[in-house]
Design a protein that fits this description.
This protein is mainly alpha-helical. It contains 22 helices and two strands. A two-stranded antiparallel sheet has the order 1-2. β1 and β2 form a beta hairpin. The chain is globular and about 70 Å long.
Length: 514
């Protein structure tokens, strides 16, 4: 039984639980009856292989609305399929995007933690700050962090857990708040990220089916995103303090020991600060000038540029260099062997994740190779179009359908590549702008992100959580994250309805109706 489940049981004896907490108890119990995540992903992989064979034999096909190409299920259990499965096993694993991203970033983050830089920084800054601003600060960084693509989902949750443990709050609550917000706030930000032009490209392709002259502005949802940023943070704070933390109860596991900062640690922190400033200055030189080497050499953009493509190694050195400077200044690192030892210690706890990543990589790769994903998406779109809803009910139906598909296809761009050619022109014929359709899609893509195991970073968070509760299962984690998904869904829908009825612009020159 997990620590969370034990806490819930104790609280249940002391005070009557609300209906919602009882519902989460059932979610947790049902989820924890599932096999270990490694076994579960292996079962899913086998189910995908069997389904590919069955639906291939049934001749299941759809027509891609964008390319007019007929998509059919690929049988992965016939002769050719088995050859594909066996020959792609290693490539699926080594090419699994989150694997390299996680291991590379964790080299820097792990060194910062192992040398004591993270602990010292928290004791001298964050832990001395008013407690009331710690959670909103974490959540604001989480919202803004999605501009760094997937990197924030790796870096922020474990750091938030350490901060919560150090101030006497449940670390899994901090981890859940950070992960749920960074993964569930893709419709909120103060800056245009690399996702915006990516989605706008698919939106324009869909719109050009009706209007060949339509040009999609990457900032078409910017006003909606800015308002969402300042509203979603209080929503996440409410869920964390009123639902998640009471549910988790008191944390009785290993705590982050808060000791007085020594003179060596102070010196190490100064060295780390100086090195970080120097590093930041170098990055500025490589990004700010008009012809900087990390800008897009064709148009000078930073949004789609080598800078965004290199965000992971930039973050690696952003942690590694200050951690190294801190270790030398604090005399924790004296020789190159010390650096190797600290790096080895930092990566030692990633073995469980590597095993899980191997199975998850196969599951996602086979699901993609089978063509089951796009067929489900297009069939769902055709069903929604056949119902005949109009106005807000139709838009809500689209959001619900896309949110469900997100449980199976986590990639925002992959889903939109399939759905945009169907729904953008369909809604345009009903008088709705492509900007509105894209905003509705981004809401759907956000609300189920925290709870879908198909998002590779779900497995990472589960691995991190085991540091504080070794018996935590998938059901426990989902029961902690589910309140965020529900609250985000309510928030996004209410904001969307208000925006719709007020007829507010969604971005520069982007309105609800054509």
């Amino acid at each position: 039984m997990s620590q969370l489940a034990e806490n819930v049981a104790e609280i249940g004896h002391e005070k009557k639980q609300s209906f919602f907490q009882k519902f989460l108890d059932q979610v947790e119990k049902a989820g924890n009856k599932l096999p270990d995540p490694v076994t579960l992903f292996a079962i899913f992989t086998l189910m995908i292989l069997v389904a590919s064979s069955i639906f291939s034999l049934l001749g299941t096909t759809v027509v891609n609305p964008a390319t007019k190409e007929t998509i059919q299920v690929v049988n992965l259990l016939n002769g050719e399929g088995i050859r594909t499965v066996l020959t792609s096993l290693v490539g699926n694993f080594t090419g699994f995007p989150p694997l390299g991203l996680v291991l590379v970033v964790m080299l820097g983050v792990g060194l910062a933690e192992s040398t004591g830089l993270v602990s010292t920084f928290m004791r001298t800054t964050i832990l001395n700050a008013p407690v009331k601003i710690i959670l909103p600060t974490i959540l604001f960084i989480a919202v803004m962090g999605n501009a760094a693509a997937d990197a924030a989902q790796v870096v922020l949750p474990p750091i938030a857990a350490m901060i919560f443990a150090a101030i006497g709050r449940h670390p899994i609550a901090g981890m859940a708040a950070a992960y749920a917000t960074v993964s569930g706030a893709f419709s909120a930000n103060l800056i245009i990220s690399m996702l915006d032009p990516l989605l706008a490209g698919f939106t324009q392709a869909g719109a050009n089916i009706i209007d060949p002259n339509y040009v999609a502005n990457p900032a078409m949802n910017y006003y909606f995103m800015v308002v969402s940023t300042f509203v979603i943070i209080p929503v996440a704070m409410f869920v964390t303090t009123k639902i998640v933390e009471p549910r988790l109860g008191l944390y009785t596991g290993p705590a982050e020991v808060v000791e007085k900062v020594s003179n060596e640690e102070k010196r190490g922190l100064k060295w780390a600060t100086v090195s970080l400033i120097a590093y930041a200055a170098i990055i500025c030189v490589m990004t700010l000038p008009e012809n900087a080497i990390l800008r897009n050499q064709e148009n000078g953009s930073l949004i789609v540029s080598p800078f965004m493509s290199a965000i992971v190694p930039i973050m690696l050195f952003g942690f590694f260099i200050p951690a190294l400077a801190y270790g030398i200044g604090a005399r924790v690192i004296k020789t190159d062997k010390d650096v190797a030892d600290h790096l080895g210690k930092a990566m030692a706890g990633m073995g469980g994740y590597i095993v899980l990543a191997f199975i998850a990589a196969q599951m996602i790769a086979f699901f993609s190779k089978s063509n089951l994903g796009p067929i489900i998406a297009i069939k769902g779109a055709e069903f929604l179009r056949s119902i005949g809803f109009e106005g807000l009910p139709m838009l809500h139906g689209f959001i619900l359908m896309a949110a469900i598909i997100n449980l199976l296809i986590a990639s925002a761009s992959a889903k939109w590549a399939l759905l945009a050619p169907v729904f953008v022109p369909m809604f345009m014929l009903l008088g709705y702008s492509p900007a509105l359709t894209q905003a509705a899609y981004r809401i759907a893509d956000s609300i189920t992100n925290p709870i879908t195991p198909m998002l590779a970073y779900f497995a990472i968070v589960l691995t991190f959580a085991k540091k504080y509760d070794k018996s935590i299962g998938m059901g426990t984690l989902i029961s902690v994250l589910l309140p965020y998904s529900i609250a985000f869904a309510i928030f996004w829908i209410i904001l969307f309805v208000v925006w719709y009825y007020l007829g507010l612009p969604l971005g520069p020159g982007a309105f609800i109706r054509l």
